[in-house]
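Onboarding guide, step 5: your first structure request.
Type a short instruction followed by the sequence, for example:

Predict the 3D structure of this protein.
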Amino acid sequence: MHETLFASPEGRMLGLGLALTGLMLLAFGIGWHLYPDRVLPYAIMTGLNLIIGREAGMSFGYASGFGHVQVVPLNILIETIQVLVIYPLFVQSTRHLIRLRTLEPFITRIHHAAQSGGGMVRKFGVAGLFVFVFAPFWMTGPVVGAIIGFLIGLRPWVNLAVVLVSTYVAISVWALLLNELNVWASAVNQYAPYLLFLAILLIAAAMEWVGRHRERG
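The system replies with structure tokens like these:
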């Protein structure tokens, strides 16, 4: 079973994703034991990215006084892991090689999002997938984009490469924008960066709520 699960390209991606997840958790565990105060902002940034999105996680990082060197690599790692774990799990579930009941509602949700957003990508191919992943709209992004790439028949490693390159470009653009906003806010007031972060957090949460409401509708 395990040999079959990890035999395909998606299975090898899953193995890599699980290995990176383990290494990141190990690094957080060691850091928390040695330098808990320093690690806490990184943990919060990670949680915000996973729950709300990169906008919230990255804006918190810049508001906390981090620079590009701290914010960009961590968010790249987080979103790479998401793709390397969730995308292969989806593919392997369609092949009935794995079934995780706790993840089924989430997998079904992103499957529906991928189906609804697949028209443009199918029409324009790789370029459409790149734009879809790059665009900061509801239920776009790397995970849904990778699933769309699978549904339209892209080769696994081509799909992964397009999705990750687009993701890294998007993170870089967000980094430049959010850093400039943080510098501007810092010049206004020392607490303004956190107000900016709160505003971005509320906007991102509102977009997620509206998107889910439309899905239920």
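Each response can be followed by summary notes, for example: The CA atoms of residues 56 and 202 lie 9 Å apart.
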